[in-house]
Design brief:
Two copies of one chain form a homodimer. In chain A, strand 6, helix 7 and strand 7 form a beta-alpha-beta unit. Chain A is α/β, with parallel strands linked by helices and 234 residues long. In chain A, helix 6 packs parallel to helix 11. In chain A, 37% of the residues lie in helices and 21% in strands.
Chain lengths: 234, 234
């Protein structure tokens, strides 16, 4: 809520008396009209079991992919990600890693889904969310924006550590992440420059989406910011 | 379920007729006695909304921390982690990163919690889970096992990238992760060798526990397996 108010996406704010007393700063910071509502109305408007007593009407979040991608050097593309909690957590970690945008591609969850917004802990308001129903167009838009396109795929990918060692992550990069259950569509995978697999050293058969995204995005963030090790070819 | 059977921790197996037909390999692989039960009994025994029709009685998972830590080079310590889904996801990523054990320290969730077991997707059966109620003793047990003790703490830590560059992660390491909401107890933090912060490049104020653990544990996994870059002091 604080993030929505801070980043100016609130059109109208509804608060209970109790919430208004608890968060006077929030009411003050809002440039949108504020209306008092009853606890019962707040419960009706809210999706959660313990509503906070504040409900905001916000501008919609999505924009065309090409617009979201403008000037970015690191991007997460959710290609068919269907769990809203996963999507929100990836938005949060993409924000933390300094990504310039997140793109919802194919049959991905709606970024306005309440669980997605809550799991992002405000990050949906921090970076542009592109929406492109056709995953191939999403890949094309990434290339158009000057990004290499790497698909996270445990089954077919080159080892992430080898990619890091080769310096391949220094280039501006869009990371494609597929559906949690079915993985990435084969034809979307083929459209990427190549696939990358996070090495599995133990006996786990896979990683969950958000942890895999965290490892890939932070590997890129590090490659973008650190100089090559002393003695490496520069 | 498959993992529990494979790793021989099942004492007794209860299956519905339907599940027995669907998973004949599982029944065959089990060295434990198998009993047929009704769908209704399976629903009563299961915690989930859509029970799979198979219920196993397993040996308990925990062991003393010192026993779990024996011979390890990478360990995750859940110091007061209270969300079972988070704990299970950290066990899964620790397994994937090749950690030798996970230690539940202080007021951490019970590793037998159904949500923890399910979120681990079988990894609770892959590596020893140490249990030590006193977090200071858990830290002492890690040192005793020859591990440096690094506390993941966004507020007070040295930058993770600096630690990587300094080669500090090459040593056998126990990573301490604190409670999702309250963070790490100050005195537990003080007991660590030092605190490490994952850099936040965007506007996100923090990472969630599982993604933070993924980044730290995989940074260690990489440092343990890769040679220093050419030209670096070896």
């Amino acid at each position: 809520m604080r993030e929505a108010v801070t980043y100016g996406t609130v059109l109208e704010l509804f608060v209970t008396e109790r919430a208004a007393h608890r968060h006077p700063d929030l009411i003050e910071a809002s440039s949108a009209p504020v209306s008092l509502i009853t606890e019962r109305a707040a419960a009706g408007l809210s999706e959660t079991a313990t509503p906070q007593g504040i409900v905001a009407v916000c501008t919609t979040l999505g924009c065309p992919a090409a617009e979201a991608l403008r000037g970015t050097r690191l991007v997460a593309v959710l290609a068919g990600v269907s769990d809203p909690g996963n999507a929100g957590t990836v938005i949060r970690v993409a924000d933390a890693a300094g990504a310039g945008a997140v793109v919802f591609a194919g049959d991905a969850v709606d970024p306005h889904n309440g669980k997605c917004v809550r799991a992002s802990t405000g990050s949906v308001f921090h970076l542009p969310l592109g929406v492109e129903r056709d995953p191939h167009r999403a890949v094309a838009a990434c290339r158009q924006a000057g990004l290499q396109v790497l698909a996270a795929d445990a089954d077919s990918g080159r080892d992430l550590d080898d990619i890091i060692d080769a310096g391949s992550l220094a280039a501006p990069t869009a990371w494609l992440f597929g559906n949690e259950v079915h993985g990435m569509d084969r034809d979307v995978l083929a459209a990427a420059d190549y696939a990358v697999a996070i090495p599995l050293y133990g006996r786990a058969e896979s990683l969950n989406l958000a942890t895999a995204a965290a490892i890939c995005l932070y590997a890129s963030a590090r490659a973008h910011r650190r100089r090559p090790a002393a003695g490496a070819i520069t």
